[in-house]
Amino acid sequence: MIDLPSRKKVIREFQKKGGKIAAVLPIRYPRELFRAFGFLPVEVWGPPHADVTLGGSHLQSYTCDIVRNAVSFLLSGGLDRTDLILVPHTCDSLQGMGSVLLDFVHPKQKVLTLYHPRGVRKADFDFLTEELKRLCGELSDWTGGEPPPGAFWEAIYREETADRALARLYRDRELLGLSDREFYRIVRSREFLPAEDFIENEKKLARREKRSTSGVPILLSGIVPEPMDLFDEIETMGARVVADDLACGTRRLYKSGHSEDPFVRMAERLFSAPPDPTRGSPISERADHLKNLIRKSGAKGVLIYDVKFCEPELFDVPLLRKKLEAEGTPVNYVEFEMGKILSQQTLTRIEAFIEMIG
Amino acid sequence: MTESITIRGKLRYQLAVNVAGRLTLAFRRRRNERKTARPGWSRDVLAPPLKLSARMKELMSRHYLGGRYANGAKKVAWVTSGAPIEILKALGFYILYPENHAALCGARRKTVEIASEAENAGYSRDICSYARTDIGAVLSGKTPVGRLPRPDVLLACTNICQTVLYWYRVLADYFKVPLILIDTPFIYEEAHAHDVAYVKRQLEDMIPAAEKIAGKKLSFKRLKEVVRFSREASFLWLEVLDRAKHRPSPITAFDGFIHMAPIVDLRGEPVVIDLYRQLLKEIDVRISKGIGAVKHEKKRLLWDNLPIWFKLRKMAQTFAGYGANVVAATYTYAWGELAPMMDETRPLESAAQTYLHPLLNQGTGHKLESMQKMVREFSLDGVVLHSDRSCKPYSLGQIDQRDYFVNHAGIPALLLEADHNDPRSYSDQQAENRIAAFMEILEDSSNAD
Lengths: 358, 449
Fold this sequence. Notes:
The complex is a heterodimer.
Chain A: H1 7-16, E1 20-24, H2 31-36, E2 39-43, H3 52-55, H4 65-75, E3 84-89, H5 92-105, E4 110-115, H6 122-143, H7 151-171, H8 180-188, H9 195-204, E5 216-222, H10 229-236, E6 239-246, H11 262-271, H12 283-297, E7 301-307, H13 311-325, E8 331-336, H14 344-357
Parallel strand pairs in A: 1-2, 1-3, 3-4, 5-6, 5-7, 7-8
Helix pairs in contact in A: 6-11, 7-9, 12-13
Chain B: H1 7-34, H2 52-68, E1 76-79, H3 86-90, E2 94-96, H4 98-107, H5 111-120, H6 129-140, E3 153-157, H7 163-175, E4 179-182, H8 193-214, H9 220-242, H10 253-259, H11 261-265, H12 270-289, E5 299-304, H13 312-321, E6 324-329, H14 330-333, H15 347-356, H16 364-377, E7 382-388, H17 392-395, H18 398-408, E8 413-418, H19 428-448
Parallel strand pairs in B: 1-2, 1-3, 3-4, 5-6, 5-7, 7-8
Helix pairs in contact in B: 1-2, 4-6, 5-6, 8-15, 9-12
């Protein structure tokens, strides 16, 4: 097993080398653009241990926990070591967060936003390319300079290599001999490790002969599997995660681009991601993608594990369930409130589902 | 899966809507006009309802009656409330606004019954209550308007929220019809050139798609005419709302909520222009006679966010009972304030600007500035911010907006927790207590002055 450093340690070491830190909210953004400007993107998916009362002074209780926790974390000083905050316009809650930070909270960090279009038409693609140029211009204005010559392409190639490494991890997951928790710790280290370190770590992971594994195979869908104890619990219940449709997981398996224009290439990569409601993908397309994952992985059921008040996910659930169950795949939807521990109610629902499909 | 237009369908539409329907609805309107007050209307604190309400009701009933017989007679589009409808209107589509239909269900207290159908099908109570009402109506066929027409196309514009896109993806899957998306990047500070170009390009791309469904070419002459009608109606609507600057105000924001249906649903049709001209005349008569919509107007308030549709009258009466008139609302104003951006000589360019700039597609700071402006221009004493569980884009930011009014502007402000359409997320007792406490603060603040 690889000894993964903590986010704090990664941040400290990157800063020691003269680098800057960008705190990035979910889901999509061009990592390479930030690296070219000397920033390490460190993603903020909550976090689950934040004191939500702080966020409550700006956001109503019906805002999703990822956003409330992130604002709480910021206000409690959790992002003090960061230089910049990027809030991609992923949903109405993140829209609200970006706007409230810019207009009212005024954190010490520079706040930037990014609009990812909701379609996959040529007009959407061209818009995204222009939007990436705008973001680059803002970074350039704020940092007072352009990236060094060659830095753009170096960063693009490095991130593409890291994404290929991530794809290999998923491809070889049965050969790695890792528990689900260990596997997702490594997958999720892509959220904060420099790409070069992630690539090295992936290389270090030995592949073994595929062994027969026990446990009911399930596909895990949702935004983020927090707290990570979830995986231990699933294992204790006699199941294992064989595939995922997580926003922090395979929904960000970006392919390498082809263009020789760096902005077009970054847009190509972002557009290559699997279907996702936050990108406006048709529900049938997402259902077909899940069916494909189920077929390839041998999953016997789908556990949709979603943070409360996540509208993009909530709208898809009934039709996904209908379409998957029509093909004989049971689906269980579990909603959770982001916190340090999993509620007994959540665990009971997951356990009952695993028993049912086992 | 679209329905063909047939001679039989057209004939049926003509007879049912333009002959029998017109006569019946005109008869009902005359009967309503003779009534001096609505049932349950508190005449002690409120002036009688506007007489033109009966005419507006007739117009909207005819619109929904048209929907009942539209399939087979016209191509039907279901659209989001902030969508650029002028192209569809110019192509002769019958246009249905599911949000308006949901609001109508709310006002008639039908939401719980209809939304439950969606909830039983797995749609969470945490999603927008408009969406649940609409999906429930689709799944069950339940509606207070008789029947909703089946769409031939869906048009979703993200300038009010992302929710509409999630919702219309569900509808597209259910009806198996094309979904046209007009994606409008959110304006945190100011719109960029590429934002405007993006919206314009989508409008251009929409034309051949809509023409294909309509089975005819778009006439730009007709499009310009529709834009002119939209612009004129939007200006008139703004004039109607601006009459509330008079003291006492001849109208309340609740009158605005009731009379906004035509500017939302029938924008681009000359009948809306005619209606709002008449409405202005009636309001001006009130002004000339010194009639206030609230009989003893002492305090003037701003309402932020959608109304609580199932408590419109109750809210109007509760505030009026304290001598408070909620004279203005950011929501009703949003349907008029973009009128100057509409330009019939540049229909697509101006539509790109117009539909990119609704209040809801701009930052929380911009909304605060808009509210501050309204507080000044309407001489307001306080602000009521409806924290609407079903509308995050409108509601997020309200805590800071409220804090600004209270702590920096010295304007009392109330954050009222409710939902625009779902009575299960609302408590009469709690709302009354909050309003009572707020009115005390308002009273105290004026005594201190």
